[in-house]
């Protein structure tokens, strides 16, 4: 079964330059996450990608755009917001001999740590 996905990126370095603290950046990510979850897009376990297999996902995606306007500073720091369709056959990793799963560390936390100069443990 195919599904719809929304992917976004935030300008974490820009947020820091505007005076956002590390915790405020995390709260901003959480506000975006809530907006997506409230509109039936659930987190795919990779970066800032949320999926929905609802039949009305295009309507939900439009609702996300409307709701995103209510997130303070979204117009400044959301640098990418894309909707795309994931088809039935999309996972190519099993085709790669000896393919391993990707690193499970949270990429969002890595990006925030990097912007605030926190070294990885």
| CATH hierarchy, class | Alpha Beta
- Derived from helix and strand composition plus strand pairing, the structural class reads alpha+beta
Strand order of the largest sheet: 2-3-1-4
Question: Which stretches are poorly predicted, pLDDT < 50 over at least 5 residues?
Answer: none
Predict the CATH topology: Alpha-Beta Plaits
Mean pLDDT: 81
The helix/strand series, from N terminus to C terminus, equals EHHEEHHEH
Strand segment tally: 4
Shape: flat
How much helix is in the residues?
25-40%
Distance between the termini: 39 Å
What amount of the residues lies in strands?
15-25%
What CATH architecture label applies?
2-Layer Sandwich
Q: Could you give a short account of the major beta sheet?
A: 4 strands, antiparallel
Structure overview:
The chain is an alpha+beta fold. It has helices at 12-17, 22-38, 57-68, 74-77, 107-115; strands at 3-10, 42-43, 49-52, 78-86. Strands 2-3-1-4 form a four-stranded antiparallel sheet. Helix 2 (22-38) runs antiparallel to helix 5.
List the helices and strands and how they pair.
Elements: E1 3-10, H1 12-17, H2 22-38, E2 42-43, E3 49-52, H3 57-68, H4 74-77, E4 78-86, H5 107-115
Antiparallel strand pairs: 1-3, 1-4, 2-3
Helix pairs in contact: 2-5
How is this structure best summarized?
With 121 residues, the chain is of the alpha+beta class. It has 5 helices and 4 strands; from the N terminus they run E-H-H-E-E-H-H-E-H. It has one domain: Alpha-Beta Plaits.
Features:
121 residues, alpha+beta, Alpha-Beta Plaits, four-stranded antiparallel sheet, 4 strands, 40% helix, flat
């Amino acid at each position: 079964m195919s599904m719809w996905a929304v992917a976004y990126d935030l300008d974490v370095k820009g947020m820091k330059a505007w005076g956002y603290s590390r915790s405020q950046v995390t709260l901003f990510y959480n506000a975006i996450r809530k907006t997506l979850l409230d509109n039936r897009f659930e987190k795919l376990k990779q970066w800032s990608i949320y999926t929905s297999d609802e039949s009305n996902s295009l309507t939900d995606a439009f609702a996300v755009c409307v709701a995103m306007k209510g997130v303070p500073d979204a117009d400044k720091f959301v640098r990418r917001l894309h909707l795309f369709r994931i088809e039935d056959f999309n996972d190519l990793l099993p085709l790669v001999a000896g393919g391993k799963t990707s690193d499970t560390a949270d990429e969002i936390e890595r990006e925030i740590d990097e912007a605030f100069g926190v070294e990885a443990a």
